[in-house]
Amino acid sequence: MDELIKINEFSKTPKYRQIVNSIIEGIETEKLKVKDKLPSVNKLLIHFDISRDTVVKAYDKLKKMDIIESVPGKGYYVKNTDYKRKVRVFLLFNKLSPHKKLIYDAFAKRLGENATIDFFIYNNNYRLFKNLLLSHLNNNYSHFVIIPHFTEGGLGVQELISQIPKNKLLLLDKKIEGVEGRYAAVYQNFEKDLYKVLCEALPLLKKYSCVKIIFPPNSYHPREILTGL
């Protein structure tokens, strides 16, 4: 029973949500059946070295979803196995900035309680990006939502992303050349956008004899910004 509940320390998904997701996955894969007893709060907090509040919050959430029930003096039991998730999202962001947090919050709010979001950050590191994606490709996600920005590396990223079924793929913020087929994408045209902004600002910029734009050599910002100058 204990191996059904998993907590990934590298995931940005709250630990209580990971417990909830693990139990729902156990139901969906028929490893959990009605009247099966779940691990106690004390057992989970010791095993995963987490707070009591985290476990209680997870079990309370499952009770509100009518998936489990508590029996005084005995523990927690599976009550209902008819629950099925329609949406399970793998969310992979390069960093957790304020506007990326807004994107995550918008996803969570829009999808609602019946969806599962597994949220990971790779800190612009291509090697970590690759490891996270490859280790979750076969985890039965309904959607893969990815923001692909790297400080260095990235060779072969188009082949890597192309392994995701196109009907499950959503690329955000940056288009990756070489990813073929019909898939969803919302991205910036960094080259044209910068040129357009500079043209619009031309009346204000004319008073300067020189305008210098600083672009760090080791930056995750797209190189297309430079070609737009």
Q: Could you please describe the fold and organization of this structure?
A:
- The model has no long low-confidence stretch (mean pLDDT 89).
- This protein has helices at residues 15-28, 41-48, 52-64, 98-111, 126-136, 157-161, 190-200, 202-205, 224-227, and strands at 68-71, 75-78, 87-93, 115-121, 143-146, 169-173, 184-187.
- The N and C termini lie far apart (59 Å).
- It is α/β, with parallel strands linked by helices and 229 residues long.
Main traits of this protein?
single chain; Arc Repressor Mutant, subunit A; 3 domains; five-stranded parallel beta sheet; two-stranded antiparallel sheet; 7 strands
Task: Describe the protein's topology.
Blueprint: H1 15-28, H2 41-48, H3 52-64, E1 68-71, E2 75-78, E3 87-93, H4 98-111, E4 115-121, H5 126-136, E5 143-146, H6 157-161, E6 169-173, E7 184-187, H7 190-200, H8 202-205, H9 224-227
Helix pairs in contact: 1-3, 2-3
